[in-house]
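Weekly structure sync, notes
Attendees: PL (lead), two postdocs, one rotation student
Agenda item 3: pending single-chain targets
PL asked that the sequence for the first pending target be pasted directly into the notes so everyone works from the same version. It is reproduced below exactly as submitted, 625 residues in total.
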Amino acid sequence: MSDVATQFQPAPLQPSSPTAAGTALPPTIATPRLRLWPGVLLAALMWAAIDGPGLIPDLQGTRIALDVMLDGALFGVIAIGLWWLFLSRAHWTDRLLILLFFVCSGGTALAIAHPSFKYMFYAPMVRGMPLASSSLILWLVVTRGLNWPIRRLGAVVAILLAWGYCCLLRFDGVTGDLQAQISWRWTQTQEERNEADIAGLTGSSKPSTAVKEGALRLQPGDWPSFRGAERDSRLTGYRIDKSLATKWKAEPPRKLWGHSIGPAWSSFAVIGDRIFTQEQRKKNFEAVVCYDANTGNQLWEHVDPGRFEEVAGGVGPRATPTFVDGKLYCLGANGKLNCLDAATGDVKWSRDIVQDSGAAVPRWGFSSSPLVAKGIVIVFAGGTDGHSLLGYKASSGDLAWAVGDGKVSYCSPHLEHLAGVDQVAIATEKGLMSIDPATGGVLWSYAWDIKEGTRVAQPIPLGGDDILLGTPMAGAHRVHIERKDDKWQDNKVWETKDIRPYFNDLVIYKGNAYGFDGSFFTCVNLEDGKGSWRARGYGNGQVVLLAEQGLLLISTERGEVALVEANPEKHNELSRFRALDATKGKTWNHPVLSHGKLFIRNDAEIACFEMPEDKGGEKAASSKQ
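Predicted structure, written out during the meeting:
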């Protein structure tokens, strides 16, 4: 540290020589002896706060990590600025002018930077200002032996180069662990690279089985809506009368087809040999698309003008189509609710939930996968004056009722059977509300207000009139619902922080919950909420339960698919294979298993795999294959 603090000392100044007029020249201005060690220390602490939480497994993807990163960057830059002004020992003119140049060059850089780089001031605060201030300090440290005019000029250049570098970047969002994804601004986005491939998909392909308008019907083994028929990501049979093989090293899943897809976080509805999802198409169109499940050929598309884009969350629709009685009910990220004929894509009716509710488009887009119950199509809108949850008549699209005061939710309505009554639950920032789907009347509400963060994971019925509500950062509550003398009561059974689901939904198997707590996959006992084990290696993915075999099929954030035993005693991964290219997108979408096929997508690719069958009564292996 003393080497940093000790600066180059010029030779002692000699008395100036007299001129012809007998006057002396003014003495040379002395090189300042800068005190650099506080700046070096502050810069080191700042970068430790910015990048350190991402290296600590228990903090990855948490609100604590985000707060430390943002606060560390902000206060680090402020502290470095105070050091430069009051402790650096530079001449006061240089202190003020260099600080002014730092601010002005930063403002100019932000004005010409890529629009994504300005996202919520995240990129300039976490990367731009720290990089520019650190460049100044680094230059002053490595040029201790140079004279001050050169060091002053170099300091200006160092700041300018740092801000200039930031102008060359594009912010492509974040991973599930909140790590920034950065690209050169002149490179194509994955969406742009995919456009030619998507344009080549034909809408005139013949399906494997011709279906007339309105003739599609639900069959055994279909997957008709978000997370399946019961919205619980629970597969009661891998395939009718068959089981899934678990030794994928010997017999890997066979890829049937795959191709580029428009960005979106939608999952799939699967009806027979047709699959339905949503995508962003041609930059400015939200699309509902039908593919042939056997070939991947596009059969039809329905498009609406519009584009939703949020830098961190990404582009495109969020919700999954819902199939009921030959119709598809689809909600776009900007609030367009469509009822389509599932066989042809023809529009039966459309509504705008922004207009009907008075709500604004949420920060991360409308994400409510429609639920159809008692002839009512139910979606979350977050509107004002009792227009939180909307119910439309499935036959006509007329608004049947509106209810609730929750403003923020990225959950979907969930059909429950509690205390002997069919009801629909929705989680919002205020807690959990349950309504009668036929009338929209509120049955009960469980108050658990959250000041920060948002609810995304589905509320999960546990049986015995209990329900599990998970919340990022805050944890999870098990709530017991009772009805006595026509009065509803909700009572908290326990709360835990051993699992804090964000956008990763949980599955329930034999008294345990399995799912993601940040970047950990974990098992929690439902009797007391205590965690049994935690495992890394899946990023922020999704999970499907194969209930009859006691297996968990996990899609990882990086596009792999793993098979894990649903065993509360230990984590035991049986097999794994790569399904999607990790360099093209992040796999946050829910996978689907239907009719022996795995359908998986992210924001760039879609693929279908034929899963291997257990031909000899194979049991779950006890070691990884």
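Discussion points:
- Residues 230-265+507-519+535-625 form one domain.
- The chain has three domains: 2-183, 230-265+507-519+535-625, 266-317+319-409.
Action: rotation student to compare against the earlier draft before next sync.
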